[in-house]
Amino acid sequence: MHNHHHHVDTTSSKEDSTRIGWAFWLNFTFTIIEFIGGWLTNSVAIMADAVHDLGDSLSIGLAWYLSKLGHKASTEKYTYGFKRLSLMGAMINGLILILGSIWVMSEAIPRLYNPEMPVTEGMIGLAILGIMVNGLAAYKLHGGHSMNEKVLNWHLIEDAMGWVAVLVVAIVLHFVEWPILDPILSIGFTLFILINVVRYVVQTMSLFLQGVPDVSTRKAISQALLSMEHVEELHHLHFWSLDGEQHVLTVHVVINCAVDNEKLRQLKAEVHRRLAPFALAHTTVEFELPGEPCRDENDHLHAHSHHHEHDEIN
Questions:
Q1: Strand 247-255 with 231-241, pairing
Q2: pTM reported for the whole predicted model
Q3: Which of 133, 215, 230, 261 is in the most buried spot, having the most CB atoms within 10 Å?
């Protein structure tokens, strides 16, 4: 049995952290400006957006902290490292965003019955600033692939869209007295974002529960191994993901030929070659010899021990 240390490329994940840090400071500074602006313009829409942005800043801050923790090396206790923390971050962010959206709805719906006119010039100014700040933050996070960044990107797109809505409403209200437009628009974009975030939360939850990250990849891995010479069948093929990007595979490969050291080396090299295209972070492959019962299924039935050849392929 060989032990390999897994060297995961951390440069891309370091970039994630920098991108998220950028988004955090942009958002946090702007949230403070918004609260003051909302109070000065007497716009409930801007106040609602400020609270929403505050929620975003908190969850971006959390994501930033978790993505930094996620780069720590594995320990005796957490042998896979801390990659899954970013999944937890994505989960919490998604929930904050859902709660925030519900809050915005609870503010906007009563305003349908009792609309008030805000100070339109101030609204227009803040909206233009809002579009610029959130657009820049979303652009900064755009290159990211982790679940965390995708959820955060939605936060920022949601905010930028919210500001576009505020801008349109403010311009219309500047010329026409239709204050009801404001709550109608905020309800519309909040629903749109809710649908997308719920989808992400469901996806993140499935990764949390160690669901297969991608069914077609699992089938392709299975086909690649089964099409090898001397391979009869596969037992216990477990394919799951640490954080939506770093995948883990363990499998028992049942072979139908006698093996000496040389044959075993050839089989391992072939398995390694077949799995290479899938870029898996951790793989453990065990060979089951002809006539040998599967240890995981029959452990409690067979007290007599069998010789297992297994290896970890990196």
A1: antiparallel
A2: 0.63
A3: 133
All structural domains of the chain, each given as residue ranges with its CATH number in brackets, are 11-208 (1.20.1510.10), 215-312 (3.30.70.1350)
Residue 284 backbone dihedrals phi, psi, to 5 degrees: -130, 120
Residue-wise pLDDT for 123-161, tens only, equals 888 889 888 888 887 777 776 666 667 777 777 777 787
Q: For residue 309, what pLDDT is reported?
A: 38
Distance CA 74, CA 10 (A): 13
Tell me whether strands 282-288 and 247-255 are parallel, antiparallel or unpaired: parallel
Angle between helices 44-69 and 147-175 (to 10 degrees): 170
Mean pLDDT over the full length of the chain: 76
**What are the backbone angles phi and psi of residue 82, rounded to the nearest 5°?**
-120, 25
Instruction: List Cβ<8 Å contacts ≥24 apart for 135-141.
Output: 135/160, 136/26, 137/22, 137/23, 137/26, 137/27, 138/23, 140/19, 140/22, 140/23, 140/26, 141/19, 141/20, 141/23
100 exposed, middle or buried (CB, 10 Å; 0-12, 13-18, 19+)?
buried
pLDDT of 293 over the 50 cut: yes
